[in-house]
Amino acid sequence: MTDQRHTSRDEADPTDFAAPAADQVELLFRSHGDVILRYCLFELGNLVDAEDAVSETFARLIRSPRRDNGAVEGDADRAWLFGIARNVIREQRRYRKRHPTHEIERLEDATDRTDLTPDDLVVQASESVAVREALQALKPDQREVLLLRFVAGLTSEEAGAALGKRAGAVRVQQMRAIEALRTQFLARGAER
Amino acid sequence: MTPDFDDVAGFERELANPESTDPRVLAARRIEAAAATVPPVRHSLLAEARIRAEASPVARPHLRHRGLVAAAVMLVASTGVAAAASSAQPGDTLWGVRRVGQVVRVAVTPGEDAKARLLLDQAEGALKTAKTLEERGRVDEARLAVNLADERLEHAREVTSRARERQRERLEERTERLERDSRDQEKSVDDRDDSDDRDDGGDGDEPRSEDSGKGSSDSGSSGKDSSDSGNSGEGSDSDDD
Predict the structure, then answer these.
(1) Which residues of B are less than 8 Å from A65 in CB distance?
(2) Which residues contact B239 (CB under 8 A, 6 or more apart)?
(3) Model-level pTM?
(4) Does ipTM come in above 0.95?
(5) Residue B155: what are its φ and ψ, rounded to 5°?
(6) How far apart are the first and last CA of chain A?
(7) In angstroms, rounded to a whole number, what is the distance separating the alpha carbons of residues A112 and A168?
(8) Would you call B70 and A124 a contact, using CB atoms and an 8 Å cutoff?
């Protein structure tokens, strides 16, 4: 009762790193929210699921104590956040496999909230869709490493921390993955 | 021109080179370019996350109703909330989303007791949110949260009183039916008493067995009625009459 560490989340000391303070979460959202959304969208393929995953990721961030994954070279918070996002995505993918959505949800995509002209959108969307489809054809762990590196922009060290792997393993895997992606591009006649 | 990229470290180095023409690096750049076309994240997702976190502080996410939640979110999104969000208070969209989600959850919960419990949990969560928001000086949003709590409580009260009402109706129905049965039984006993008086010593065996047969079937049916005193009460009553 009198133990300070057992105060509820609402009254928690903002310096208590076990429960991220409100402004800390706000800060993480502002600096990484966009990129988390990209990552989720590239994994899940539609904006509805992606936004759902973003909100769930930050919900877990708020209620879960910070996992101490040791000294991460680079941004440890970012690596941690993407580690959570990755779990959320995996659960959602599993869920989607059992409960496929209607096509209409999938049409609901990047056409929302943008100031680009329809022409821009079409060109951009077709290239973006081509890349996403090629990525979807990869093995999940290969896709994952590419997304963390090139969609999320994590370093190999950070990606390793998010995946629970060593940075060296990430580097080797990303090489294979990028080769597999090129093969996909070629097979689809989408190599530039 | 093209360096040897079998070397992992070489690939890393080349990635850092903005002028690189290596096809693998170009493939990576295409991913980056495609990622850059994704619109910025809506800030209301953070508020949604806060509510999720408060709604179930420990438990796993509501993955089972994810489809419904997604549908609810779509529903709200498709009713022009994007436009409203830019002009209205910051919490508006979010509270709409939340309300729909909660209503859906209550709707899919079977049983009135469970419904009432869920509603009370939701009210409790909303109150907690209101407290937190107030402490952070976000008065408008705190007020929205309090309103939501009130709404949930009102709903809970409705559900509870409906449950109580139904319970009362069932008990009353059963009481009435048993009263009727009791009257019938009394009458039938009286009748037999009369007939026993009249036919005393005569060929009383026939009517007696007939009567007792009727009596037992009556009590059988009344017993059944009172045991499943649920929905078909009115119907069986009118049959009796």
Answers:
(1) none
(2) none
(3) 0.50
(4) no
(5) -60, -45
(6) 65
(7) 39
(8) no
